[in-house]
């Protein structure tokens, strides 16, 4: 690991925050519809979601920074390839994360959103599995995100069933 690069760390944290913020901005008008649909037991109050997602986006940013900031001169060829794979998966899962809210909230396509979320869950699982081989801290930082998505999956499928 190279020494801490504060500018790169801030950028790494801002990227998922901006992705989430833009997605939330696009879906802001759809939140009124969401307030009117049937929700399953264990549905948290609406205020929980922006707080939880903000924390998760910060953790995701730090996790990506830990992989990105690795000193590639100290990695063997397989590790360099793995690092690139992990960062690619990270970018793809960010794209899936961005579009899930739009699919779910803006278009109310609850069943399709669930399938999309399952793919997102698998991407994050693959990120964690691979990150464990390269940087355990990065992998651990993504576990709350995976757990939250598991809970989101429950909410998503139940909303699809109830509505």
Summarize the structure.
The protein has helices at 6-27, 31-36, 48-68, 77-106, 110-134, 136-162. With 163 residues, the protein is an all-alpha fold.
The SSE string, one letter per element, is HHHHHH
In round numbers, the mean pLDDT is: 96
Instruction: Label the structural class.
Output: mainly alpha
Cα radius of gyration in angstroms: 17 Å
Q: Which percent range fits the helix content? A: over 70%
CATH topology label:
Ferritin
Percentage of β-strand residues: under 5%
CATH class: Mainly Alpha
Measure the end-to-end span: 49 Å
Low-confidence stretches: none
Strand tally is: 0
In CATH terms, what is the architecture? Up-down Bundle
- Give the full name of the CATH homologous superfamily: TspO/MBR protein
The protein's oligomeric status is: single chain
Characterize the largest beta sheet: strand count, sense, and whether it forms a barrel.
Answer: none
The shape is elongated
Q: How many structural domains does the protein architecture include?
A: 1
Number of helices: 6
């Amino acid at each position: 690991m190279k020494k801490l690069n504060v500018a790169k760390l801030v950028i790494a944290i801002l990227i998922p925050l901006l992705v989430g913020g833009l997605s939330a901005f696009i879906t802001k008008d759809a939140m009124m519809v969401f307030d009117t649909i049937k929700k399953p037991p264990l549905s948290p109050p609406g205020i929980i979601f922006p707080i939880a997602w903000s924390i998760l986006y910060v953790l995701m940013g730090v996790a990506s920074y830990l992989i990105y900031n690795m000193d590639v001169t100290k990695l063997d060829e397989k590790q360099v390839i793995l690092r690139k794979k992990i960062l690619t998966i990270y970018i793809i899962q960010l794209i899936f994360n961005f579009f899930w809210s739009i699919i779910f909230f803006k278009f109310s396509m609850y069943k399709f959103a669930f399938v999309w979320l399952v793919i997102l869950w698998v991407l994050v699982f693959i990120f964690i599995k691979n990150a464990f081989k390269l940087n355990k801290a990065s992998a651990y930082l993504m576990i709350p995100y995976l757990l939250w998505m598991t809970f989101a999956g429950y909410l998503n499928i139940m909303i699809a069933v109830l509505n």
